[in-house]
Specification:
Blueprint lengths: L3 E4 L2 E4 L4 E7 L8 E7 L6 E7 L3 E4 L7 E6 L4 E6 L8 E8 L7 E3 L3 E6 L1
Parallel strand pairs: 2-11
Antiparallel strand pairs: 1-3, 3-8, 4-5, 4-9, 5-6, 7-8, 9-10, 9-11
């Protein structure tokens, strides 16, 4: 059992950058898949970026070329570098980690607010 805690959110002007961090209370080496999701007011939670061992990284079309996901297993950390932020990026951002099959259990952080002002 691990706990995921996000940080790095805040208020930023359009065109600016933020780096989100997700700290795990335990080792993340056994998570083959980790990712960032977001939920804007009145909308469903959506995937932003995934990092999957053996398959690389995947991004939502809306953030391709602007966001970069990375992980540091030695530090138990997951990151999301967000550049060229747009007001549409305003949302609560959640860290996610998935245990490999057949378990498949998903861990979620509590979320961090990102607000982009136009």
């Amino acid at each position: 059992q691990v706990q995921l805690v996000e940080s790095g959110g805040g208020l930023v002007q359009a065109g600016g950058s933020l780096r989100l961090s997700c700290a795990s209370s335990g080792s993340i080496s056994h998570f083959d898949a980790m990712g960032w999701y977001r939920q804007a007011p009145g909308k469903q939670r959506e995937v932003v970026a995934l990092i999957i061992r053996g398959r690389g990284t995947m991004y939502a079309e809306s953030v391709k070329g602007r966001f970069t996901i990375s992980r540091d297993d030695a530090k138990y950390m997951l990151y999301l570098q967000m550049n060229s932020l747009k007001d549409d990026d305003t949302a609560v951002y959640y860290c996610n980690a998935v245990l490999p099959p057949p378990n498949g259990y998903q861990y979620w952080g509590q979320g961090t607010q990102v607000t982009v002002s136009a």
